[in-house]
Amino acid sequence: MSDIPLHSLGRTGNTRAGYAPLNDAQDNSTDMHTGVLRAAATRSATVNLKGKGKQRERYIDADDFDEEATLLGNGERALEDVEEGNAGGQSKRLPALSRRSSTLSRTRTPKEKSRTIPFRPGEKLQSKFPPNVVRNQKYNIFTFFPIVIYEQFKFFFNLYFLLVALSQFVPALKIGFIVTYVAPLAFVLCVTMGKEAYDDYKRNLRDREANSQKYLILVPSSDSGPHTRSVPSSSLKVGDLVLLEKNQRVPADMVLLRTSDASGTCFIRTDQLDGETDWKLRVAVPAAQKLHDDEELLDLDAEVYADAPIKDIHTFIGTFAINSPRTRSVDDVPMVQVPTVEPLSAENVLWSNTVLAAGSAVGFIVYTGSETRAVMNTSHPETKVGLLDLEINRLAKILCAVTFALSLVLVALNGFRGLWYIYVLRFLILFSSIIPISLRVNLDMGKTVYAQQIMNDSEIPNTIVRTSTLPEELGRIEYLLSDKTGTLTQNEMEMRKLHMGTMSYGYDSMDEVVHQLASAFGADQAHARSSSLATGAQLAMRGRRDMSSRVRDVVLSLALCHNVTPVTNDDGSLTYQASSPDEVAIVKWTESVGLTLVYRDRTRMELQTPTGARLTYDILDIFPFTSESKRMGIVVRDTHSGEVLFMQKGADVVMARIVQRNDWLEEETGNMAREGLRTLVVARKRLTSQQYAAFKTAHHAASIRLDGRSEAMTFVVAEHLEHDLELLGLTGVEDKLQDDVKGTLELLRNGGIKIWMLTGDKIETARCIAISTKLVARNQYIHEVAKLKTSDQVRDELEFLQSKLDCCLVIDGESLQLCLNLYKNEFIEISTKLSAVVACRCSPTQKADVARLIRHHTKKRVCCIGDGGNDVSMIQAADVGVGIVGKEGKQASLAADFSVTQFSYLTKLLMWHGRNSYRRSAKLAQFVIHRGLIISIMQAVFSAIFYFAPIALYQGWLLVGYATIYTMAPVFSLVLDRDVNEDLALIYPELYKELTKGRALSYKTFFQWLMISVYQGAAIMIMSLLLFETEFLNIVSISFTALVINELIMVALEITTWHIYMVISEVLTLFFYVISIAFLPEYFDLDFVVSTRFAWKVAVIVAVSALPLYIIKVIRSRVAPAASSKLL
What we know:
Its main location: membrane. Its cofactor is Mg(2+). It is a multi-pass membrane protein. Its EC number is 7.6.2.1. Among the domains are: about 435-455 and about 910-1125, no CATH class; about 475-490 and about 735-910, Rossmann fold (3-Layer(aba) Sandwich); about 495-520 and about 545-735, 3-Layer(aba) Sandwich (Calcium-transporting ATPase, cytoplasmic domain N), CATH 3.40.1110. Helices cover about 45% and strands about 15% of the residues. By secondary structure, the protein is an alpha+beta fold. Helix 36 packs antiparallel against helix 40.
């Protein structure tokens, strides 16, 4: 069986030069050899070894080093010996090389983390690497209190209340019960700390569960008993050989040595790592796969070199080296030439957190714990804070200034007598309710209610709120940045067109392809031979046969050139597994026209022809698709004829220079792109056995290089294969639009939201999707900007756009980068005024940069929506990130603040839930501030009349009850208010536009509420003093009762649409207040309270405070009605 390495095109990775073999002097056992890595498999590799000063990391002790230094031989000579030995095909073991490398190891830099690990490494070496422990906890027992306290008191609100509460422990400043000041703050802190502690405890449980999962490791055994031992995940170390079973999660990054599949391949699921749902193929190290059983790995004198750990999950550079033959007896002859060095790439590695999808496998651990790719790619995004929270924090600072001013004014009116500074502080404490601590509690509870309403909405099922602090932000979005594939489109591909230069087959003429293919494979040949035809007709038939063979060539190439694996399900049906939906669509199409992929493993592929015959091909090499190379290639050999074919398919931009000259490719790719189709160019090349042998030799030499391996391999492929390919055809695959995308985009645009589409696709395709989704209005001018090279060109384009702001801009990634580099501010200023912008060929970082720039420049709210791993950075950079659970997996959905299953759900999310959340929170915040202000104004009036004495008007339970039981429920019921019903909000998106101006909570509305509070507080207090009897107690009872009833009436005036809970909360609160009077004799004289004098006085006071506001509200609704009321 031939072993086929999977190579990559144009992929760059971290490369290192020079080996430092590992000498584990501290392990003296006879079966532990000093590991020497034979880098010098080719002369070029040896030159690299000599020429570089930067050395591989070795882990040795100082004692070991001193011992070896005395034995040092001539290192340079040893290196030459390696060259000569390998050139002559000999395999000599050279201790001098290993010793020289020991001296070099002394000069390694601390940052150098590459490693060479022998099989069965010693414990000293293993202890140098991080433990394989999963730790997602935020805190430990020492850091919990300091961090949580800091997080809470960095908010102005909480810091202010902490100072007020602490002041009560100073006797001179003590006013009323200490508990009235300390309890609310303690409650808020306890709730927060409890929530944090609980969340961290749950994280700790998950960590403990992950760390205690059992895995089998291979261990040497003296008797004939089992060679495996079960250990918890946290005890695994670098160099352990782990046996994995089906559906087991991979515990650390490991090199795949053996699989239960004879071909040495296995499938893994990577959904937890990169969000992709497709299975990925992984390949075992050929030399290890050839062994008879897993136990033989324990006798192997081999070592694995692995590069320093990096984030990139698509790159791995390493080698697998067998140093001496594995012999069981004296007579055994080594089966392989030693030393052998095999290159390792990402295809040979199982990253931690992936899952083995089928079979069993043995892996050799190379990275553990914090050095695994999964941990390195786990970023903790910054906590997002809503604009409303920032605005309220600003208002709190204004209220603090008001409190201080009020205190100073009262002390000044008293003429700064006595210890006036103490009086200022006492007044500050008396007025502390101006900044209500309950505001944070109310708003946080409100956010929870909004999140529940969103998640329980039956019209947008499976919507998840992951960041519950941001629902109000959904009501203020002005820019929407959207991905294209999978977001606006379904990522469901269907082959629609095949163009072959002189012939084109559309979706409705595919039966012609079926017929041509059948005749090419001989189904119609017998009929053709038996007919006696005239000369002209015979010529026509020959022309038809030429066309048939061309159709056969292109369909055969499409059926062979891919990375698709057919998987037979339990019910006998066949499904295709691949990492790209485009490839699956093309293979399904070849099946529909008669050429079916029936079997595939790493070395062989079988196709079934229309006649039922089987075609078998050996797979010699595969060059997978990468975003850099934009193409994939395959070398196959027909087992019947022995013919070697190189086939390649890819994007037109890269294929145009690889195929032979032609006059139709560029024009036809443009035509297909205008129809909204994704294009792939298919080409092939016949290779002689000599050409292939020359390529193979050069490619192997490049593949085991240490320095610039990827570039060298790419160069070899380009030099030997990628030129003068025969152009076979051009395919057009359609990506279907998501449901109701057109209506959604139109509605959002009418709601004043400017929409940008950022995609990695090419200009033509993006342009057609923009037209078909109605992102561009009918007859709107589309201005294309592409391939800009100079600053003059950029300036000209910007000047044109400045004069035509009603157009849609389509720009490619290269030009976008140039614009941002040269004229960043001008470009953003002009483009943010355009109604629509389409940016093509965008990298993930470009998407995120655009989001940040718009936020920074416009200071408006930006929402980003996407469905793939490439959209995560953009989603995290936005004010609000929305992820779609799509074909590309859940990665975007998990990183987002809100997760939806369809793009069209965005309408309901923004226009209804977002709008309501913002309106309700704005009203709730202002009402809670009003509730605090009014009682402080009453306190100020009371103090002013009673000789400016800083004495509390309401003490103890009245103050506690006022902020909680007497007003909490009615005020909080405002979170259920709505001004229009759902249908109207979605029919008239202009209502949303009105809200984005931020007028619901502004300095204007804040000062209106400030004036209302001053008027009502003064009115209630002055009227109470005018009407009060001789008893001071009566002032308290009259004014407090009037205050509570006034607040209930104010809530009723604020409500636009009554809800059953609002009525219940108003009635119950009044009932609780009346009942509580009986239990608070120290504040209420019961005889006076039940008298008619009390009733009419309270009624008069409430009428004076509330009636004018009701009259003003009625007049305003007639003179300047709200936009929403015009629709009712």
